[in-house]
Amino acid sequence: MSTNLPPGRYFIGDPCYVFSRSDWDNFACDAILDGRETIQDLPYFAAHTLNGDGLYKGSNGFEFGVDAGLLGAIPVALITKTPDPGDGIIVDCPGGLDCEENDGIFTFGGLVIDTRKSEGGDEDADLDSRF
What are phi and psi of 88, to 5 degrees? Predict the structure, then answer.
């Protein structure tokens, strides 16, 4: 699965961390799980991690927490809940952002996140306190 997102600023991480609980439950989760190409008319990218929830180390050294079994690139214009510093990163992409998931390996431009195994311990760790 791959897409090219238009120029803009994007949150890279688990999409559940940038939506209020009601927005996640009312529109964002359904859009993502249904495979829609946009949320509120804005293109995004999201795909399931290979091993569900856990911590996945990116090629930039950041450990991305996952609590909804997803990683993605969400336009900051869609953010309805400020993510915690450990939830993901925000990137400026003036030339757009190439996103891909292939057998559990995600690429967001030059950033690679391998979700074939979880880092930092138990893959079933409860990260829900950050959601």
Answer: 175, -165
pLDDT at 2 over 80: yes
Confidence tier at 8 by pLDDT (50, 70, 90): very high
Burial zone of 49 (CB within 10 Å; 0-12 exposed, 13-18 middle, 19+ buried): buried
What letters, b where the CB count within 10 A reaches 16 and e where it falls short, cover 76-101?
eebbebebeeebbbebebeeebbbeb
Report the distance separating Cα 33 and Cα 103, nearest Å.
18
Query: For the chain, what percent of residues have pLDDT higher than 90?
Result: 73
User: Closest Cα to residue 96, out of 16, 2, 8, 13?
Assistant: 8
| 59, 113 Cβ separation under 8 angstroms | yes
How many Cα atoms sit within 13 Å of 63 on the Cβ side? 11
